[in-house]
Automatic annotation (TrEMBL):
Signal peptide interval: none
Gene3D superfamilies: MFS general substrate transporter like domains
Species classification: Bacteria, Bacillati, Bacillota, Bacilli, Bacillales
Membrane topology label: Multi-pass membrane protein
Alphabetically ordered keywords of this record: Cell membrane, Membrane, Transmembrane, Transmembrane helix
Organism of derivation: Sporosarcina saromensis
ATP-binding listed as a keyword: no
Cited SUPFAM superfamilies: MFS general substrate transporter
Major place of residence: membrane
Name this protein carries in UniProt: MFS transporter
CDD domains in UniProt: MFS_MefA_like
Subcellular location: Cell membrane
């Protein structure tokens, strides 16, 4: 295949997976919003809400290493399409249960576990496939457009979900998700995941080494990458502490501040607006030069935003002012999350060999998420017995201190040696 044809095909991939992600994400976001709101309204307990989050996090943590092995040893296209079909079947099962017996927490938790399993295989494999779908020069654009599609869906889905909640039945939410998932399957089946891939040949689809040997090889490869190891340790602490935000945000706004569902949906949508705006910016600008430096200060800013969530619990703010405050806060959070994540992922895409991407990204995900279930349980319990504002302020303070220590200047210079020759970092060149 000529280079011109490959580049044309890569352009097709850019738009196809963007549209596919937008459609499937829209269904997933509407479903997630409806289920979360349903659990909180029925139980009124942060613990029940946290349990559903654990059902999403724990399977991802346990299965990510296996998903990485599969992504490196078998057809990535087959894995992604198979996972999407399994997602459709899982939602169909919950729909059948809701129509036959009615929704129960057990059925919701079980479905969440299945969806977490399918998203683990799909997510790790898709992340590992980026450099096979597009040329190296457009990796940042591809990842930004992928995030743009998710953001477009996330902007409309929470607002629509908040509006429709109580107007349409839960089966309607599930049906929307099923249709979106099936559409994504059709679009993904037209993509060539090996267009730019540089993988070793696999004889008859059989792995040349055992799964255990393959995983050990992935760990050994990762140990030789000191920058990646630094990111893992930082991620461990960050993901644990952000459990306070993930459990507490919905709990505070819905249970403590009694925000109505429509307005809560708008605040969720504000995050998506922020991610969309930053994704558009990154998709049209040149590649960020110092991703770890940007990531460090972006995470610190996210810690400040996390602490600020507690302000209306400390200071009385009229309802409309409180609503505007959270809109601005979540818009900032969305901007910062993309500013942190996209450059770091682009850096890792270029650092990691194609044959190790699945295992390395799965190990990164496993390590980053390892403490999240514990965090969900701990913070879910704490929010039921300790004033929410003190939990958020304490978590925010610890997060900022940890990042300042673990991503100190010497560590950043190790990742970006050229900073040793630069006294100041110009915003235009960063």
């Amino acid at each position: 295949m000529s280079e011109a044809i490959k580049l044309k095909r890569a352009t097709y991939h850019l738009w196809t997976f963007t549209i596919s992600k937008m459609i499937s994400s829209f269904g997933a976001q509407v479903y997630a919003f409806a289920i979360s709101f349903y659990i909180l309204q029925v139980t009124g307990s942060a613990t029940s809400f946290a349990t559903n989050l654990i059902c999403s996090i724990l399977p991802r943590t346990l299965l990510a290493p296996f998903a990485g092995y599969v992504a490196d040893k078998y057809s990535r296209k087959t894995i992604i399409i198979g996972a999407q079909i399994a997602t459709t079947l899982a939602i169909g099962g919950l729909l059948a249960v809701s129509l036959t017996y009615g929704l129960s927490l057990i059925a919701i938790y079980a479905t969440t576990v299945v969806l977490a399993m399918t998203s683990t295989f799909s997510g790790v494999t898709f992340t590992s496939s980026i450099t096979g779908l597009v040329d190296e020069a457009r990796i940042q654009r591809a990842m930004s457009m992928n995030q743009m599609s998710i953001s477009f869906a996330a902007i409309g889905a929470p607002a629509l979900g908040g509006y429709l909640y109580g107007v349409v039945s839960m089966p309607m939410f599930l049906t929307m998700y099923m249709v979106a998932s099936l559409t994504a399957v059709i679009l993904e089946s037209t993509m060539n995941f090996n267009l730019f891939a540089n993988r070793k040949e696999i004889v008859d689809g059989e792995p040349k080494e055992s799964m255990l040997q393959s995983m050990k090889a992935g760990v050994s490869y990762l140990r030789k990458q000191p920058i990646l190891m630094r990111l893992i340790w930082i991620s461990l602490v960050i993901n644990f502490l952000f459990g306070a935000f993930q459990v507490g945000y919905a709990f505070i706004l819905i249970e403590k501040l009694k925000m109505i569902s429509t307005h809560f949906g708008y605040t969720e949508g504000a995050t998506a607006v922020g991610t969309l705006l930053m994704s558009i910016n990154l998709s049209i600008r040149k590649e960020i030069k110092y991703p770890l430096w940007i990531g460090k200060w972006g995470i610190i800013a996210m810690g400040i935003v996390m602490g600020a969530v507690a302000v209306p619990l400390l200071i009385h703010i009229p309802y409309n002012g409180m609503f505007a405050f959270y809109l601005g806060l979540m818009l900032s959070f969305g901007l910062l999350s993309i500013l942190v994540n996209t450059p770091l992922f682009v850096m890792m895409q270029k650092m990691i060999d194609d044959d190790y991407k699945g295992r390395v990204f799965s190990l990164l995900e496993t390590m980053a998420m390892a403490l999240m279930p514990l965090g969900m349980v701990l913070f879910g319990f704490l929010y039921d017995v300790v004033p929410a504002q003190w939990i958020l302020l304490a978590s925010s303070s610890v997060l900022i201190v940890v990042v300042l220590i673990m991503a100190r200047p010497s560590v950043v210079r190790e990742a970006h040696p050229e900073l040793n020759r630069t006294k100041t970092v110009n915003v235009e060149t960063v």
